[in-house]
TrEMBL record, chains A, B:
<feature type="binding site">
    <location>
        <position position="73"/>
    </location>
    <ligand>
        <name>Mg(2+) 2</name>
    </ligand>
</feature>
<dbReference type="GO" id="GO:0009228">
    <property type="term" value="P:thiamine biosynthetic process"/>
</dbReference>
<feature type="binding site">
    <location>
        <position position="147"/>
    </location>
    <ligand>
        <name>ATP</name>
    </ligand>
</feature>
<feature type="binding site">
    <location>
        <position position="215"/>
    </location>
    <ligand>
        <name>ATP</name>
    </ligand>
</feature>
<feature type="binding site">
    <location>
        <position position="213"/>
    </location>
    <ligand>
        <name>Mg(2+) 3</name>
    </ligand>
</feature>
<dbReference type="InterPro" id="IPR036676">
    <property type="entry name" value="PurM-like_C_sf"/>
</dbReference>
<feature type="binding site">
    <location>
        <position position="44"/>
    </location>
    <ligand>
        <name>Mg(2+) 1</name>
    </ligand>
</feature>
<keyword id="KW-0547">Nucleotide-binding</keyword>
<feature type="binding site">
    <location>
        <position position="73"/>
    </location>
    <ligand>
        <name>Mg(2+) 4</name>
    </ligand>
</feature>
<comment type="pathway">
    <text>Cofactor biosynthesis; thiamine diphosphate biosynthesis; thiamine diphosphate from thiamine phosphate: step 1/1.</text>
</comment>
<dbReference type="GO" id="GO:0009229">
    <property type="term" value="P:thiamine diphosphate biosynthetic process"/>
</dbReference>
<protein>
    <recommendedName>
        <fullName>Thiamine-monophosphate kinase</fullName>
        <ecNumber>2.7.4.16</ecNumber>
    </recommendedName>
</protein>
<feature type="binding site">
    <location>
        <begin position="120"/>
        <end position="121"/>
    </location>
    <ligand>
        <name>ATP</name>
    </ligand>
</feature>
<keyword id="KW-0808">Transferase</keyword>
<dbReference type="InterPro" id="IPR006283">
    <property type="entry name" value="ThiL-like"/>
</dbReference>
<feature type="binding site">
    <location>
        <position position="51"/>
    </location>
    <ligand>
        <name>substrate</name>
    </ligand>
</feature>
<feature type="binding site">
    <location>
        <position position="42"/>
    </location>
    <ligand>
        <name>Mg(2+) 4</name>
    </ligand>
</feature>
């Protein structure tokens, strides 16, 4: 992997070029997205030793997760992704086998979600990193699910495991690759998050009021979802908690509920729905009612006020882990 | 500048939030671009010690150029930018004064080109870096100018200085900030490239056939523009060369024409136009006829075959410089 052309050739063997929503594919000064419908866009960084470690992520894992965290933002709009651009920072010393795996992991996910690679940039760099921008279109009526829109009395719900990826991160940091064998479910939740595009689309069609991607943990993301003028009364007990999270918490002397809501990189969906639309939304696979929106500000969990910051890639150098 | 919120607050003081072509601004899982028209998109990296050096770029220069190189891709489509996303890699040790200058340099250019900041991501990192994705709309009929489309006999032209930014880079690398005073025109061509949005729009309206951003030097970019089956016969003489480039070449014992076509980071526009549309295109400010498209492959300059690679941020660690 010596030249830019080697990379471009390898990329061409992996990634789809065209899409019905792409008027012009990669290779020119710009790609052109087909008009006619509103387009949602999100950009995320995925950097070595901030967001992932090479000693326990395989090349495929890195490629997969770099794209997955972006798809999750599209899913959280109740939208369907169709294309992405990739800015790739290439450090010295990675061989063709690595890059093949990296592109393979990313391209497999791109194919499963029907996405074309629309463009990007390559540069040498000290460390491996990816910046992806991703594009999606809304539900059947072009509707996007934004944050908030909640009213007191609305039902709050999540789809996806809370806290499990955090347990995965903690075990991977402690045990390295060995955690993949000893705690496979948790480790894979961290290494290979599954973005919930189909679920987001179904929730959109079911008429939920608002939806958001839980990436910094429920405790941190719920106030962002509610906005400054509302609170929430949550019930998180027993079967609503992930068994692996409970087992890990008990083994480590931690509180299972706290570990669940602190989470981090859950890539679960958090939403609110009115009583009227609740039955339709509740039929979506994985729908888990977690509580109610309240007029009173602040978060109560199982009857007790709760306030702890969650996970932050930016502020806290110890956040990983 | 300790927390992510400090950054978000500072960003809000600098950057426009709304735009008529933006259905939903930054702050949610995604921004939403208004449909109805095709949208062109480009992504570029701008990394410390690859694309810029902090010892002779001011904070304002870095912010300006990170956005300018992206705008240049929009200009090269004959399009008008309206929004961008910014993924920012934040190293330790930069104070609020730096960030104020950085955002100021970027926001001033964004304001001048009528762009909103639609979203992005922040992460700590070892070195300063920016990945920007930028969005634009086409000419009056939604037309975009792509590469190629040339036929033998078409007139090739450029708008913008070739080789000048390369001289700027060479003098800045040799003299540091001092070059800003001794070679201000060349230094500013490297530090503060001026994207040619208005020119691109005019060329689009004038009916040129193809347009491209010259960022790796004319010698490297012209074959990309022509495609594999065509060549070019160029005439580059006397007043067509930039005076500063000629003076620098003569002082350093270099060939002025070679320095002009090797260039690098020119951010000039390269296009082709038919004989019929030539008079209209030629009235666009800065239009410089440089030669003709030929059926015979290869590039001839002033009657002599020419082949030398240009500037590459990727392959050649010595490229800077």
């Amino acid at each position: 992997m010596k030249s830019e052309q080697d990379f471009l050739d390898l990329i061409d063997t992996h990634f789809t070029f065209g899409h019905e929503l792409l008027r012009l594919g990669r290779g020119d000064d710009c790609a052109v997205l087909a008009g006619g419908r509103d387009i949602c866009v999100s950009s995320d960084l995925f950097l070595e030793d901030v967001h992932f470690r090479r000693d326990y992520f395989t090349a495929e894992d890195i490629g997969h997760k770099a794209l997955a965290v972006n798809i999750s933002d599209i899913a959280a709009m109740g939208a369907r992704p169709f294309a992405f651009t990739m800015d790739l920072m290439v450090p010295p010393g990675l061989d063709e086998e690595f890059w093949n795996g990296f592109f393979q992991g990313m391209a497999t996910l791109a194919r499963h979600t029907d996405m074309a690679l629309a463009g990007g940039d390559l540069s040498r760099a000290d460390r491996l990193g990816v910046s992806i921008s991703i594009f999606g279109v809304g539900g059947s009526k072009g509707r996007f699910l934004t944050r908030g829109n909640c009213a007191p009395g609305d039902i709050l719900f999540t789809v996806g495991e809370l806290g499990l990826a955090r347990v995965g991160l903690l075990t991977l940091e402690a045990l390295g690759r060995q955690a993949r064998e000893e705690f496979p479910t948790a480790a894979l939740a961290h290494l290979r998050p599954k973005p919930k595009v189909m679920i987001g689309t179904l929730l959109n069609a079911a008429g939920v009021k608002g939806l958001m991607d839980v990436s910094d943990g429920l405790a941190r993301d719920l106030p962002r979802f509610l906005g400054p003028n509302l609170g929430a009364d949550l019930t998180l007990r027993g079967e609503m908690l992930n068994g692996n999270v409970v087992a890990y918490a008990l083994a480590m002397g931690l509180d299972p509920v706290e570990l669940t809501v602190l989470g981090g990189e859950d890539y679960a969906l958090l939403g609110c729905v009115s009583e009227e639309e609740f039955p339709k939304a509740a039929s979506v696979p994985g729908f888990t009612e977690i509580g109610r929106v309240t007029e009173a500000q602040g978060i109560r969990i199982n009857g007790t006020p709760f306030s702890t910051p969650g996970f932050d890639h930016f502020e806290n150098p110890q956040s990983h882990p």
